[in-house]
């Protein structure tokens, strides 16, 4: 009978040990499930954040592309304006040069006439 009691006590001890192991495993499983849910939540949050950041970057990219187009149009307009201004300056320089030559010829003619008149006056004085 004592042997049966000892065997029974060992059996009960083994059952208690297994129950403790079972409780420990249950807790580990619950922790793993919690960690998995937490990890899934964090990944979902990160994915949502990345998606939001991506949308913001798309909007920023679109705005920058629009600004680039506006600047290209402005550059084209400014270049055309500059070309027109340079053409006007060239035309004014040509016009001014021809007027200058014309005035210089008139000046030379008048100087020559004055010189001739002075000579005539001197001749008449004598």
TrEMBL record:
Entry-linked PROSITE patterns: IF_ROD_2
UniProt feature coiled coil, ranges: 1-88
Keywords: Coiled coil, Intermediate filament
Keyword Coiled coil belongs to the record: yes
Pfam families, per database record: Filament
Ranges for domain IF rod: 1-126
SUPFAM superfamilies: Intermediate filament protein, coiled coil region (SSF64593)
Protein name in the entry: IF rod domain-containing protein
Protein species of origin: Xenotaenia resolanae
Lineage: Eukaryota, Metazoa, Chordata, Craniata, Vertebrata
């Amino acid at each position: 009978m004592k042997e049966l009691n000892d065997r029974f006590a060992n059996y009960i001890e083994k059952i208690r040990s297994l129950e403790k192991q079972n409780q420990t495993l249950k807790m580990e499983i619950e922790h793993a499930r919690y960690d998995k849910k937490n990890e899934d939540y964090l990944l979902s949050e990160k994915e949502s954040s990345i998606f939001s950041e991506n949308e913001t970057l798309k909007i920023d990219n679109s705005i920058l592309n629009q600004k680039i187009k506006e600047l290209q149009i402005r550059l084209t307009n400014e270049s055309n304006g500059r070309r027109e201004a340079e053409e006007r300056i060239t035309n004014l320089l040509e016009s001014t040069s021809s007027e200058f030559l014309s005035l210089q010829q008139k000046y030379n003619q008048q100087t020559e006439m004055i010189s001739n008149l002075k000579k005539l006056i001197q001749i008449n004085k004598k």
